[in-house]
Design goal:
The complex is a heterodimer of chains A (about 190) and B (about 230). Chain A has about 190 residues and is mostly helical. Chain A is about 75% helix and about 0% strand. The N and C termini of chain A lie far apart (about 45 Å). Chain B is built from twelve helices and no strands. Chain B starts with a helix and ends with a helix. Mean pLDDT of chain B is about 75; it is low at about 170-200. The chains are: A mainly alpha (about 190), B mainly alpha (about 230). Chains A and B meet through helix 2, helix 3, helix 6, helix 7 and helix 9 of A and helix 2, helix 4 and helix 5 of B.
Chain lengths: ~190, ~230
Amino acid sequence: MEPDAQLVHDCLQGEGSAWEELVRRHARRVFNICYRFTGNRTEAEDMSQEVFLRIYRTLPSYRPTFGAFPTWLTSVTRNLLVDHYRRTRRDRLTDSMDDVMPQIENKESSARTPDKLALAAELSDQLQQGLARLSPELREAVILRDLQGLDYSEIQTVLQVPEGTVKSRINRGRIELAKVLEDMGLGPN
Amino acid sequence: MNWNCTTTEERLSDYLDGALTPAETAAFKAHSACCRECAKIVAQVGSLVTRMHSLDPVAESPMLVNRILDATIGPRVQKVGWTRWFGWANSLLQPRLAMGLVTVAATILILIYTGGITPSKLKRADFSPVNAFRTANRSVHLTYARSVKYVNDLRVVYEIQSRLQPSNEPSPDATPSSVPNEQQQPKNQSPQEKSQTRPNPGHSQARTVAMLACVVNRGFGTTINALNRSSR
């Protein structure tokens, strides 16, 4: 039996420790999807909490036939992120924050990161700025494929779109992201 | 195969993921080699994908898990029974901590045995503060006395060596020019007088052995007296 499936089974039997283990095991994964999508740590943590609340409530409805537990978890995360994006789109348009957000985020992250000179942190920040400029469809496809390492069939399950669309979005997302980073002067070289 | 810039862009991810057929890969590479624009895009996207794959996940706040658990199952139930008191013992199972504890225990054992304490002979009374202080005090004084005796013995040995040095080694005066003077001494000198004027190597060795025996058997004071007597 898959370890996650065993934990889910124990959770449904009312074992709090099994739920605690599930949360500890997957919190980072959920947080990273949320963080890469929203570009804001606080927002990402709020979203992560919301995701696990949803999972906790809907766990009895989970069936292994839906796919592996991590895929189902990613699917729930993605749906909540899309809802959140639609809910907050009006606010963002009103405040014209789309163009300003990357700069603000850059300042916040550079102040928060203790080793801001480290190459990995710098790359992560640059990437976050680039991702913020992609459309949500392309952004989520790139995040799931290149940052979460999901394969095409898993992404197809999560996004509920045909495989051809998945491939097309990943391809367009990568090319656009490379161009955006180059325009921002954050190219590979 | 008719391969153009649009095809290259459309199949770029397939190329990077290794999903092209050998013929498609060859056509892709051939076009990229002769088209500057496509070569630039391929290089940029390839580099970006490699960098994204090498990125580590961003660490969440340490409080996030607790926040989620509080929001779902509420504050955790306090541990009851023996787990309340011995729950920390699970952390001992970690190899690094266990190794550290073993090292500390070994160090303490070595110190105990070096300090002259035999655990099997320990009595209950030895653990009272007064007795422990007395034992520690006695050990310190004994160690001090032993070290003083050792230093004194060393001093005696060096003193013996320094006194014997001139008799074993030729003196600065014992140059070839002094030999005729010795030869000029009267031949009717008694053997006793000879032994006083001319050191006998066999006699000096015997003297050294006697003094070292004194050091071992009688201690410092006796040795000094013997040394003085022999020198007279």
